[in-house]
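[job 4417] fold queue: 2 targets
>>> target A
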Amino acid sequence: MLYEQDEYAITGFINSRGNLEHNIYKQVDGGVIDLKDRTYHKGELLNLLELELEDFVTRNMPTLFILGHEICLELANG
């Protein structure tokens, strides 16, 4: 499930124990990936996004920190 409001998005799913697990995301950065042609499979697009996310995290790794008793990653400059 996906719900969006303003600059936030929340994704959720029912886990094997019947509980609703969720993650909340805040828009920090984004961009455009120039596609060479218009024929792509879902797996190929997911690979592009995964590479983009890995690059983003690598570039911003020094600014990541953990808050509170729950693991929460935030960008210090975000």
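>>> target B
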Amino acid sequence: MDWLGVEWSRFFMMIAAAGLGSGLVQALLPIYRDRRMRRKQAVYMAMRLAALMENFACACANLIENNRDVLKPSDADHPVWKSALPELPAYPEDVDGWRALAPKLAARAFGLENKLHQSQSAIRNTDERNKPEFGSVLYEQAAARRLEAWRIAVDLRKTYGIEPIDLEWDYPDYLRRALVTVAKERKEHRQRAVA
């Protein structure tokens, strides 16, 4: 009887372990599938947002470059600059993708819209009140928003393992230099105004 009792107890333990293992697999499989699906949604959203941010950054660089070549009409005190910052393209309306995206990255993307409005307001105020500073403020605001968009795109690509963009024109470096140049010009202008 002992022999049969030991075998039966092992048999029941094996059935219980198999049932427990099967239950765990069935309980964890939907969680695994959900996490995998959310990861795919986040990667796809990150690719879309990174491309939007990179396009916006390029448009800001083009605005600065185009305004550098603007001539001053003979009857005007200042050049006729294009003063509107590029519009940020509409964000994807993929609710699941936004939910899957890292909250800090999503917040930075949404925050860029607010900063863009603030920059445009600063440009408009300078145009109305301080014309001599206008070019510098325009370049500074365009470069700052562009660099922020570029950083968001880079962070999205790093976070989700997306290959970096291959640039033919290194406009991030161009804009960093533009910010340095603008800061020097503004400092010189202020020194001349004080003197």
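[job 4417] complete. Note on B: Helices lie at 2-68, 95-100, 103-129, 134-159, 171-194.
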